[in-house]
């Protein structure tokens, strides 16, 4: 069933249910009021007749003569009121009916002064018996100085009493029909209003499913559907951003695959050429040591490329168990300077350490060294004839390390992706034999995240870059995903 019909049906059900409840309550009230008024009227007649009967008995006259009762019955006939009178011996004296008596248990109740209301004598036949037309009325005893002198049954037809109830039913039916017509119109308007918004959402969703992330739905923040539209717009914006990031990563991955193929093909071609030269004695004897040394360097280069990929996958999937201890980082930083000095000298870079004599840090020793080596390698790669400074100091509940260079720097757009896998800020500069895979900084970010630390970069084109690493003390590590 279409949503507009579901809304229409639900609105109509609510209207019908409400009117039915109100109508039932109103009819029940009208019915009770009609019977209550009739009972009061009949009781008034009965008490008036009772007063006459007592007065006549006190004056020594016969209790309510038959002639008087016939006249009274004639008067009340127009109102469809019926009389029956019984004497103190439970004998019906008006109208005359041989052997007609009240039920003994009913008579006992009346002798005790109990008044009995009968809603329908054909249903409650136990009291007065059944008649052709159903009657509703009262049985009331008459007393004179606590002496029973008679009992009267006075009632009117049920049909006459229920006339206002039938009128109320007709009015209710008319109200129901009018309410249904008005309800259908209002329901159509409300349902159309709601479903139009949902249709807009549906059409927008279809566009997003086809890859159109420029969809935005206009809304006024009036209701939950507008709130849903607002959330949808935000979701589409995030999807667009994610799609753009995925495309950028795909582009970088393709670039990496091309670079990796090129970088691996070159050493493999070199190794294969040397092997063929050795096989066919095409290489002079005096050149063989240099050729073997070249082949060894190219083999190490291939191994390094493979290891960097394997390293990153292990770190990213938390397969590397960190053995974190408190140690003096200044010793490791001096080792890093010594290790990286030859690489820096190749491009006329100067390595400077600005660290205290002792600086404690809580980390895995080997992984800390790997982090610093990768950061220094990255700085050397993008700095020629410059200075690379390693700074370390203690902060609240942790230690801060900075690698500062005055190299080519990066744009704001490049800094967004610098820690992502395969990203190279300047591929044309990646030809120094290290860091060429675009994984070095991705490994750094992953290792620092596993340590519960932080890493950030500040950079400006042609001014250099500053990489800042914060490693926290035990118990103060940040949340690790």
TrEMBL record:
<dbReference type="GO" id="GO:0000155">
    <property type="term" value="F:phosphorelay sensor kinase activity"/>
</dbReference>
<protein>
    <recommendedName>
        <fullName>histidine kinase</fullName>
        <ecNumber>2.7.13.3</ecNumber>
    </recommendedName>
</protein>
<keyword id="KW-1133">Transmembrane helix</keyword>
<feature type="transmembrane region" description="Helical">
    <location>
        <begin position="172"/>
        <end position="193"/>
    </location>
</feature>
<dbReference type="Pfam" id="PF02518">
    <property type="entry name" value="HATPase_c"/>
</dbReference>
<dbReference type="GO" id="GO:0016020">
    <property type="term" value="C:membrane"/>
</dbReference>
<keyword id="KW-0808">Transferase</keyword>
<keyword id="KW-0472">Membrane</keyword>
<dbReference type="InterPro" id="IPR050736">
    <property type="entry name" value="Sensor_HK_Regulatory"/>
</dbReference>
<feature type="domain" description="HAMP">
    <location>
        <begin position="192"/>
        <end position="244"/>
    </location>
</feature>
<dbReference type="Pfam" id="PF00512">
    <property type="entry name" value="HisKA"/>
</dbReference>
<dbReference type="InterPro" id="IPR003594">
    <property type="entry name" value="HATPase_dom"/>
</dbReference>
<dbReference type="InterPro" id="IPR005467">
    <property type="entry name" value="His_kinase_dom"/>
</dbReference>
<dbReference type="InterPro" id="IPR003661">
    <property type="entry name" value="HisK_dim/P_dom"/>
</dbReference>
<keyword id="KW-0902">Two-component regulatory system</keyword>
<keyword id="KW-0175">Coiled coil</keyword>
<keyword id="KW-0812">Transmembrane</keyword>
<dbReference type="InterPro" id="IPR003660">
    <property type="entry name" value="HAMP_dom"/>
</dbReference>
<feature type="domain" description="Histidine kinase">
    <location>
        <begin position="259"/>
        <end position="475"/>
    </location>
</feature>
<dbReference type="InterPro" id="IPR004358">
    <property type="entry name" value="Sig_transdc_His_kin-like_C"/>
</dbReference>
<keyword id="KW-0418">Kinase</keyword>
<feature type="coiled-coil region">
    <location>
        <begin position="225"/>
        <end position="259"/>
    </location>
</feature>
<dbReference type="InterPro" id="IPR036890">
    <property type="entry name" value="HATPase_C_sf"/>
</dbReference>
<feature type="transmembrane region" description="Helical">
    <location>
        <begin position="6"/>
        <end position="25"/>
    </location>
</feature>
<keyword id="KW-0597">Phosphoprotein</keyword>
<dbReference type="InterPro" id="IPR036097">
    <property type="entry name" value="HisK_dim/P_sf"/>
</dbReference>
<dbReference type="Pfam" id="PF00672">
    <property type="entry name" value="HAMP"/>
</dbReference>
